[in-house]
Amino acid sequence: MAPLTQNGQAPTGRRGPTAPPPILEASGLVKHFGGKRMLLKRSPLVRAVNGISMSVKEGETLAVVGESGCGKSTLGRLLIRLLEPSAGDVIYRGRNLGNLTPDELRRLRGELQIIFQDPFASLNPRMSVSDIVSEPIWLKGGSSRGERRDKVVEILRTVGLRPDMASRYPHEFSGGQRQRIGVARALASDPRLILGDEPVSALDVSIQAQIVNLLEELKERLKLTLIIVAHDLAVIRHMSDRVAVMYLGEVVELATTDTLYDAPLHPYTQALFAAIPQASAVARHSIKPLDGDVPSPTNPPSGCKFHTRCPHAKPLCNEARPQLEAVEGGRRVACHFWREIAAAGSDPRPIARPSARLEKRLALYTACQAGRAELLSHRSSTPTAKDQTC
Ligand SMILES: Nc1ncnc2c1ncn2[C@@H]1O[C@H](COP(=O)(O)OP(=O)(O)OP(=O)(O)O)[C@@H](O)[C@H]1O
Asked: Does the beta carbon of 72 lie inside 6 Å of ligand 1?
């Protein structure tokens, strides 16, 4: 089993001569918050991200999953340089973002965009839709007022909103429509890579499917790369090509979506997926969902951060931090004993039927996928005022 190189890639040669270079590569990313002296005492040091090395391939959808507080949003924001790392580098299309001048970074900002979780909080209530969407175009520079107006109209159509909605204000829209405005704002600067930070979790389930489908459609049409931070494993399975599983500031497993859902290797991934046993092969292995809470990132356990909750923990896990190790098929796992755990779990049982709730959600996605062509033609002619149907 070949170990990873410093930048989180498999050793040179494994990628193959024809594989395109990643659009983004992170190496040794660390982000600590706090730890500053305040009057009489020091604020606690929060170790949000601890030495993550990974890459994002051009045109893929990479999902980042994990329990609340494990550092998903922080990692996402570090990758698009919305946050400055405490240590480590992000190389975007061959350029180290840490070495750019503020001016160079501002010019590059349009290529790296974000869609926020909460469409109610993330839009300025005092700005019209037209102002919200045209601001990034204006910031990019080089366009006249008329060109900006035309581009706003085009982008609104692209995200399924009517051009006459441009003069309205965010409070006049439904949740799904507001998230479409958030998507329009992200698209306005012609991005190459978009971070979706829980882009659908604040929305009603039926609206979630619309936004998921919109993002997928835009990704294909505009050749975007997506990083999706989310905790909804059904949405992740539907949307992503690869999944990075995080635990307490570290990536513990990284694999293609099908591989990960069919046979998770890390005990944390297994336990995470056991919360939706019918949706994954972990149902075959009677793995229990996780007990207890994630330890505090201000005082993380030594060695493997997961050992305090891991059913397979051995003394070594308390002593040494496991490295992300390359496994066949481009998958990576950070566990000292993944081979033993995988071998012990080779007693497959039939997969249980999906729960009624999961079945409903999967059916909804399928229906929305099937209705996409119809929806698109509907949007361009007589778009709906409210996001009520697929
Ligand atoms: N600006 C900040 N100052 C101090 N601590 C922070 C800050 N931002 C995040 N943290 C802490 O860093 C840790 C990781 O936070 P982060 O938001 O990245 O987690 P997450 O996995 O995205 O959580 P959630 O799913 O709940 O959004 C948490 O303990 C959080 O409290």
From this structure: yes
